[in-house]
């Protein structure tokens, strides 16, 4: 790979998104020019306002173009003259989805559109946001440390439409570069992402955090979730773009190598936030109730296989190849919670 041209913009797709916003924030803080895509330029002012509120002072370095994952128009312009692409944009709807193609088709076809446009423009590298859903779901209760060599089966226990969209989009991307050649591809596979909210949109695992803070979650099921701070996910994307040795790799990104029991999140919130955590539940939800509800409720059916199961994964590649030293999961949880409280997004 040739060296990244520091004067050329980095393309970040889906600039209104959670991870994309933090990628843009960090790139601009480094003094690098950025181009981002939105489905409609009607949202450009909103995105610029959100970035300004997050502390960006060099918004003149940000260019916004219109491009939609569902259409070819705009992508040639978006990639032209860029130093590299962070393809972050993808539909995100974990849990039960009635029309799965509403997730799968834009995720897969959008990734292929970006790769084709990047290839035609001779962009040297594309970093694609995949997810741990493409690695560590659907296997059943295996005694296994998940690594980048693992792929989630499409129809295993606990697999959902979001997971299938990630598997199919990432596999399509790897197949595309294998058959057609360049650009170099790196895929980033974060676990459950949370951390400081930008603007008023609550997305990713922050939605779960919001439900905990408001008391909408009445108690904690016996679930363990691996967490990662969105700021570390953004840093991983940028490192994956810049480091030559990352070419052709999948990279898992997490705060630690073992999932965190959900009830520990409640304890951390109560200790860190005091009175602001008054609605955080203190009781546990018996697994027998969730398994009984799984017979009639799809959202329970999809979490039932995960009850009582603590997943392990390796973050060695993120450390060794990307040089990433992630924040503790507790910092990510508290930062996400405080940002929502400060923005008035938590009403208990």
Main attributes?
348 residues; Rossmann fold; 7-stranded parallel beta sheet; 12 helices; 13 strands; globular
What features would you describe in this structure?
This protein is an alpha/beta fold. The protein has a single domain, classed as Rossmann fold (3-Layer(aba) Sandwich), CATH 3.40.50.720. The chain contains 12 helices and 13 strands. It has a 7-stranded parallel sheet, with helices on both faces. Helix 1 packs across helix 7, helix 4 runs parallel beside helix 5 and helix 6 packs across helix 12. The longest helix has 20 residues. The protein is globular. The relative contact order is 0.14.
CATH homologous superfamily heading? NAD(P)-binding Rossmann-like Domain
Count of strand segments: 13
Low-confidence blocks of residues: none
In spatial order, strands of the major sheet run 3-2-1-4-5-7-11
CATH topology: Rossmann fold
SSE topology:
Layout: E1 10-12, H1 18-29, E2 34-38, H2 44-53, E3 62-66, H3 75-79, E4 84-87, H4 101-120, E5 125-129, E6 145-146, H5 161-180, E7 184-190, E8 192-194, H6 206-214, E9 224-225, E10 227-229, H7 230-242, E11 250-253, E12 260-261, H8 262-273, H9 287-293, H10 298-303, E13 312-313, H11 316-320, H12 329-342
Parallel strand pairs: 1-2, 1-4, 2-3, 4-5, 5-7, 6-13, 7-11, 8-10
Antiparallel strand pairs: 9-12
